[in-house]
């Protein structure tokens, strides 16, 4: 049975571990080890994750498959969004699954959690950024009804990369 759990300060070590593992699994083959390690050390530093978990306009959720931590979701709204998108928008900043747990419907469960959170906040739009070369993720989001609306630069160490910004308007 799959389940979800909201992440708390007590879960920081697990959050840091799953964040580093999933990001490295997803992007290690396409980036230099130096750039990847610099990013992992900065983005997933304990103090940074603590501040993110404690932000009242952000929430993290773990997803478990057969009692094993499989991945996580981070959503932001209001001023916590990584780019100004205005009121009425919820950002899916991070949605990652370990490779062993992909294609089990867990990504959809995490997105449904984001949609539920958006609805609970009265937000009518969910948006996210996807690396332009992550074809599996782009196809997944398009299948669920996300459409591109812009792009931005994502800095990974010394490498500037392009993310496609996608949105879905909720009914």
From TrEMBL:
GO terms for MF: diamine N-acetyltransferase activity
Ranges where the N-acetyltransferase domain occurs: 2-171
Domain of life of the organism encoding this protein: Bacteria
PROSITE patterns for the chain: GNAT (PS51186)
Record keywords: Acyltransferase, Ribonucleoprotein, Ribosomal protein, Transferase
Cellular component, GO, one term: ribosome
Pfam family, one: Acetyltransf_1
EC code(s) of this entry: 2.3.1.57
Protein name according to UniProt: Ribosomal protein S18 acetylase RimI and related acetyltransferases (RimI)
């Amino acid at each position: 049975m799959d389940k979800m759990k909201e992440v708390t300060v007590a879960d920081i070590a697990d959050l840091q571990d799953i964040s580093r593992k999933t990001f490295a699994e997803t992007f290690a083959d396409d980036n230099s080890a130096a750039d990847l390690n610099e990013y992992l050390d900065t983005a997933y530093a304990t103090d940074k994750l603590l501040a993110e978990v404690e932000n009242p306009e952000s929430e993290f959720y773990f997803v478990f498959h057969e009692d094993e931590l499989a991945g996580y979701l981070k959503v932001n709204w209001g001023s916590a969004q990584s780019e100004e998108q205005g009121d009425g928008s919820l950002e899916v900043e991070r949605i990652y699954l370990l490779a062993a747990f992909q294609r089990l419907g867990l990504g959809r469960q995490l997105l449904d959690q984001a949609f539920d959170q958006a609805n609970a906040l009265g937000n009518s739009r969910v948006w996210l950024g996807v690396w332009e070369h992550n074809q599996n993720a782009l196809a997944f989001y398009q299948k669920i009804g996300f459409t591109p609306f812009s792009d931005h630069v994502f800095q990974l160490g010394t490498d500037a990369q392009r993310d496609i910004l996608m949105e879905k308007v909720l009914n």
